[in-house]
Amino acid sequence: MTDKKLILGMGLIDGYGGLHGAWRAPHVDPGTYADVDATVRHARAAERGKFAFLFTPDFPAVRADVEHSTISNLMDPLIQLAAVARETTNIGFVATGSTTFQEPFNTARQFKALDVMSHGRAGWNAVTTSDPAVAANYGRPVADRDERYQRAHEAIQIVQALWGSWQQDAWIKDQQANRFIDPSKLRPVNLQGEYLASRGPLGIPPSEQGQPVVFTAGGPSPHLLSIAGRYASGFIAEVWTIEQACAQRELVRNAARDAGRDPDEIKYIPGIMTTVAPTVREGLDRRLKYAGEVIEARLPHLGAILGIQIHPDRYDEPLTPEQLVSAHASPRDPRSSNALAVARQGWSPRDILAHGVIDFHPTVVGPGELHADHLQEWFEAGAADGFWVTPDIYEDGVDAFVDEVVPILQKRGLYPTEYPGTTLRANLGVPHQYGPDPRLTGAE
Amino acid sequence: MTDKKLILGMGLIDGYGGLHGAWRAPHVDPGTYADVDATVRHARAAERGKFAFLFTPDFPAVRADVEHSTISNLMDPLIQLAAVARETTNIGFVATGSTTFQEPFNTARQFKALDVMSHGRAGWNAVTTSDPAVAANYGRPVADRDERYQRAHEAIQIVQALWGSWQQDAWIKDQQANRFIDPSKLRPVNLQGEYLASRGPLGIPPSEQGQPVVFTAGGPSPHLLSIAGRYASGFIAEVWTIEQACAQRELVRNAARDAGRDPDEIKYIPGIMTTVAPTVREGLDRRLKYAGEVIEARLPHLGAILGIQIHPDRYDEPLTPEQLVSAHASPRDPRSSNALAVARQGWSPRDILAHGVIDFHPTVVGPGELHADHLQEWFEAGAADGFWVTPDIYEDGVDAFVDEVVPILQKRGLYPTEYPGTTLRANLGVPHQYGPDPRLTGAE
């Protein structure tokens, strides 16, 4: 491991936090979704903890249940991150933008403007979109996978070419000589793909990191790996076990190798959800308090995950020895092995679920040491280069993580005590890039 | 006139100012184009002068001459205005966004997010785009005018419907009752036009002004008047004379009447460029200092505008009595009558051009009184409800306008001494609107 440090990013979702019902906590203003002051506050808390970036997932449509749940993303990632950029100095911004429904010229322009404005802290999480609700918002049918990914290749190539179209030394700005730009260094890109095209150039100069860092996200299908391997410096993952993460990370690294890159140029970043509390019991109680209904509704499902029958009368009793003997992790559900491990610690079904065992990501509940142990174990097993952390409730959960987990990681030598630099590239440890990667030859 | 006040907006272009060569002034950092701190500083200066809004023209392509001239717009209007919104409290933002090349769902989302974030200060200048260089950046052909305007109607209708799709009382956010939104009040819009469609809803609540204010801009063609009359609360104009402005304003007001609206609901806002200086001579010298080459290059054109021959040896002498007798304003160039009026004041050809007589907008050069007189004359003649002002050099020109012109307008009772309110609607004096205008029935 030597002196390699783990990277932390923070998932910025709806303004409330990763815990179901976070918006209902009495110390949370239920109007936070529309309150950018709160987003700024949470970003500054993460910056205090030397987080390398904020990550905004995005789903440009309203999900089904908004009566009892929140809107699961920011009002608009780039608009809100532009505001946050004004009030932070080191933390980066990895904003999700669809290659399916965004115009490459607009993507190139807005992300590079944010990058210049933030002095080199922007990243673009380039993803394809197949959800019919999103497609309907853009008045289009859902494209098939081949088309979506061909379009994604074209979009990323066009965006990176536009980023490089203002050459790094194009801006003369010599007042005496009356020369603003060297026009020979601001050139059209003239890219024409099967689905997308752009002439350019883009009239935006380089930032302190050159251009925004490209990420991608999702399950490692061959289609996505071909995107990740060629273009991405970061890979946002959803995995539940170390084994799964190690295997996936290796696929991602191999994809980079296949594209002629050093695999260390792409950082594999799985998600984690956190509840930092003095004891596990207090952490579980915090989660039950706000997510109680959701956990209640999931109880009938727990037996299925463990392959046993659980009677509703026994939801608040530890599993019996007989149940524990016959319980087994389903090979088809990667969350079930963790559910089984928690069950074996002697928790009741309700408490097992309160551990977040069937939540979106691995969840850690309890003191800072438990969190640090989890991150260290994954990191040292080669399951992650870093993590995107979604605290249970932003209002106090970011500070709790920064105060209780970060110092332990620092003490263990796993995490930087100061920002390595002022740009996202520096803080991720990924190489400089301007324009397309010269090692790639043309479109797929 | 009674107590009606004139409205001021400030044109935010490249960061330097409206004067050719502003970027070369020694007191200007030539890197200002990429420096949002400067944009914030200029915005705050305008806010000190109670400007109702900042207006960002936009041209998403690089114009031909960038060797000696600047990029003529912001890096990205919305991204930069989002930053400015964090550091201002009352000034509004009217950002140009194309109905031709922007997805209505994205327009609706980003503008409403900015509106909510700025507590009700956003406006959308909805324009069509026919420039081949812009079309090429989006990989598309230039559409014909009928198609562009049909698309514009559809885009504005979809955007306004999406803005209204989160009904004003939809957000319950009752923590005790565990009800976040009333789903019956967050409804799809299901709009399907000939070119554009969107299902919605848009997951963004109302702002303090409900939704962004719609503007439009351009010459008053029947196509544009049909947009302005139906949807716009502000009309950004380019005119050179009072007569032209009065006629155009009446066309715009009639278009609103034809759409069943009160003509006072649409504010007609022509442009003006300003050089505030202790004397006219000092103002002209300031302009000659930075725009000297451009003025030099235009000198051969001045004779044509005035219908006389001007020998290059006489560029620095006043026109002769014989020349002044035979000079006449061309009925085909609205700028020529002003050029003639300036010539008759006894200025040399070079000084006539330094008055900005063939610039983008009427230009005033000299003491604050001259500026106030111009604005008052136009305002009282019914040629304008307000003006969008582009100072010659932002770095000191905004402060000069605020310190030397605004107090005179206030003393004359023409201009508010305090912001009428905190929202763009309040500061423009336009009525509340949420969702589509109920007086309009369907698409054209």
UniProtKB/TrEMBL annotation, chains A, B:
- Provide the residue positions that the database annotates as binding FMN: D58, T96, Y149, S221
Question: Which InterPro entries does this entry report, sorted A to Z?
Answer: Diverse_substr_monoxygenases, Luciferase-like_dom, Luciferase-like_sf, NTA_MOA
Which terms in the Gene Ontology molecular function aspect does this entry carry?
monooxygenase activity; oxidoreductase activity, acting on paired donors, with incorporation or reduction of molecular oxygen
Q: Does the keyword rRNA-binding belong to this entry? A: no
Mind listing the UniProt keywords for this protein, alphabetically? Flavoprotein, FMN, Monooxygenase, Oxidoreductase
> Gene3D superfamilies, alphabetically?
Luciferase-like domain
- Luciferase-like domain sequence ranges: 28-383
Q: Which family does it belong to?
A: Belongs to the NtaA/SnaA/DszA monooxygenase family.
What is the protein's given name? Nitrilotriacetate monooxygenase
